[in-house]
TrEMBL record:
GO MF term (any one): isomerase activity
Transmembrane feature ranges: none
InterPro entries xrefs: 6-hairpin_glycosidase_sf, 6hp_glycosidase-like_sf, AGE/CE
Superkingdom of this protein's organism: Bacteria
Family: Belongs to the N-acylglucosamine 2-epimerase family.
Coiled-coil intervals, chain numbering: none
Organism: Neiella marina
SUPFAM superfamilies: Six-hairpin glycosidases
Keyword terms, alphabetized: Isomerase
Key word Isomerase present: yes
An annotated GO BP: carbohydrate metabolic process
Name the UniProt record assigns to this protein: N-acylglucosamine 2-epimerase
Length: 422
C-alpha cells in the first residue's frame, strides 16, 4: 500500500509539472532569420534616432538626458525631456546593450540624468516629474499611474542587465513610494491618479491602473530581482486576478476600460458609451494573462485558466471587423465603438501592432498571423528616409508625417518589448 501511495503522489506531481510545461511551451520564437534580422535592425535604428539630440542641460558625459519631442525628420521641437520617453529609451538601450556595449553607456548616463534631475518628493518618498527643461520643470501636483509606473521601466531593465545593487536600492525606494500612494487598501489594485495635496483621486480607476504597473515594470522587476521576489508577488497576483475577473467584457468581447472605485465596470449602453475601445488593449490584456500563466506562484489551475483566457481573447479580437479586405496582413484600425464594432478612428497605431504581435507570439496556433502582422509593421511603420517610426499610418497605410515621432511617451518601448518577445 505504501508503494501505491507513493506512486499516486508521484503521478500527481508529474501531471502538474507536465501541465505547467505545456503552459510554458506556449511562446513560440521566430523561426525565420530574415524577419528576426529585420526586426532587430528596426530597433537599432530606432535607438539611434532617439539618441541623436542630447539635452543642453548636461553636466557631464555620465549624465545625459535626450530630448523627447522630435518631429517627422527627427529634429527637436522643444527642449523638454519627458520621464516616460526617457525611461522607455533607457529600457531599449539597456535591452540592446549585450549586442552593443555603447548602448549600456548611454543607458547608464540617461538613468543618472533621470535620477538627478527628474524626481520630486513628498511624505511617501520620491516620485517622477513629468518633464524637465534647462529653464523649468513640471510643477503639477497630480501624479498619474502611467507616468509613475513607466518612470521605473528603464531603471528596472538597466538593473536586469547590470545587477547594480545601488540601483536596486533606488528602485526599491521608488517602488515602495509608488505602492504607498496608489494602492487601494480596501478594494485592491491601484488608483489611476494621486493628488499630492489630497491623496488618491476618486473616479480614476481604469484598465490601465491595473495593467500598466505590471507591464511597465513589476513583471520585469520580479524576473530580475530574484532575492526579493516575495515583495512583488502579492501585488502581481492581485492585479492579475482582478484583470482576469473584471478586465474583459464577455458580452461585447472588448476590454472594460473604466471602473468605479469598487472596481465595478462602467457598462456602455445605447444611451451612453463609457469609452471607445482598442484592439491594442485587447491584445495587451491577453498577452499579460498568458505571461502570468508562466509565473510559478500562480496555481496550476490558475496557469491553465489564464493561458486559455488569453487565447480566447486573441481569437475573439481577430474575429472582429478590425481590419480591411486584406485581413491581418494589412494591419488594423485603432479605435472602435464597443456596441456597434464600428471604427471611430481608422488610423493604425504603431503600439497596438506591437502589442498584437506579442500576444500572437504567445498562442501556438497564431504564428502565421504573427508573422503576417510583423511583416506589415516593418514595412509600414519604419521611415526609410529619416529613420525612426511613424506613430500612425492611415487607412490606406500612408504615414501621417505631421505626427511627431517623439513625444511625452513615444521613444522605443513598445517596439523593443515586441522584439524581446519575438
Amino acid at each position: 500500500m505504501v508503494w501505491q501511495s507513493l506512486f499516486l503522489a508521484s503521478l500527481l506531481v508529474l501531471t502538474a509539472c507536465t501541465q505547467h510545461l505545456q503552459v510554458k511551451q506556449a511562446a513560440q520564437p521566430l523561426s525565420q532569420p530574415k524577419l528576426i534580422e529585420q526586426a532587430t535592425d528596426h530597433i537599432d535604428q530606432l535607438l539611434t534616432f532617439h539618441t541623436v539630440h542630447p539635452s543642453e542641460w548636461q553636466q557631464n558625459q555620465n549624465s545625459v538626458g535626450y530630448l523627447s519631442e522630435l518631429d517627422n525628420q527627427g529634429m527637436p521641437v522643444s527642449d523638454k525631456v519627458y520621464t516616460v520617453a526617457l525611461s522607455r529609451l533607457i529600457y531599449g538601450l539597456a535591452y540592446r546593450s549585450a549586442e552593443n556595449p555603447a548602448n549600456l553607456t548611454k543607458a547608464k548616463a540617461a538613468a543618472a540624468f533621470q535620477l538627478q534631475h527628474m524626481l520630486g518628493e513628498d511624505r511617501h518618498g520620491q516620485y517622477f516629474l513629468s518633464w524637465v527643461s534647462p529653464t523649468a520643470k513640471d510643477s503639477g501636483t497630480r501624479l498619474d499611474i502611467w507616468q509613475q509606473a513607466y518612470g521605473l521601466c528603464g531603471l528596472v531593465e538597466l538593473y536586469r542587465q547590470t545587477g547594480d545593487q545601488q540601483l536596486l536600492q533606488t528602485i526599491h525606494r521608488l517602488h515602495s513610494a509608488l505602492v504607498s500612494r496608489f494602492q487601494d487598501q480596501q478594494y485592491g489594485g491601484f488608483w489611476g491618479a494621486y493628488e499630492l495635496t489630497d491623496g488618491p483621486e476618486v473616479g480614476s480607476k481604469s484598465l490601465q491602473s491595473l495593467m500598466y504597473p505590471v507591464t511597465a515594470y513589476l513583471a520585469n522587476l520580479w524576473l530580475a530581482d530574484e532575492t526579493n521576489r516575495d515583495n512583488y508577488q502579492a501585488i502581481l497576483q492581485q492585479h492579475i486576478e482582478l484583470l482576469s475577473e473584471i478586465g474583459w467584457n464577455q458580452q461585447q468581447q472588448w476590454v472594460n476600460v473604466k471602473f468605479d472605485d469598487q472596481w465595478q465596470p462602467c457598462e456602455s449602453s445605447e444611451q451612453a458609451v463609457c469609452s471607445s475601445v482598442s484592439p491594442g488593449h485587447n491584445f495587451q490584456l491577453a498577452a499579460l494573462l498568458m505571461r502570468a500563466a508562466e509565473w510559478p506562484f500562480m496555481t496550476v489551475a490558475q496557469q491553465q485558466q489564464l493561458q486559455q483566457q488569453g487565447e480566447r481573447m486573441v481569437d475573439a479580437t481577430l474575429a472582429k471587423p478590425i481590419y480591411g479586405p486584406t485581413g491581418i496582413a494589412g494591419g488594423f484600425a485603432q479605435s472602435f465603438d464597443p456596441l456597434s464594432n464600428e471604427a471611430n478612428d481608422s488610423r493604425k497605431a504603431w503600439w497596438q501592432h506591437c502589442e498584437a504581435i506579442i500576444a500572437l507570439s504567445l498562442v501556438p496556433t497564431q504564428q502565421g498571423n504573427r508573422d503576417k502582422l510583423l511583416r506589415f509593421f516593418l514595412a509600414h511603420f519604419q521611415d526609410q528616409q529619416f529613420g525612426g517610426e511613424y506613430f500612425f499610418v492611415d487607412a490606406d497605410n500612408q504615414p501621417e508625417t505631421t505626427e511627431n515621432k517623439g513625444n511625452v511617451g513615444k521613444s522605443a518601448y513598445h517596439s523593443v518589448e515586441m522584439l524581446r518577445f519575438l
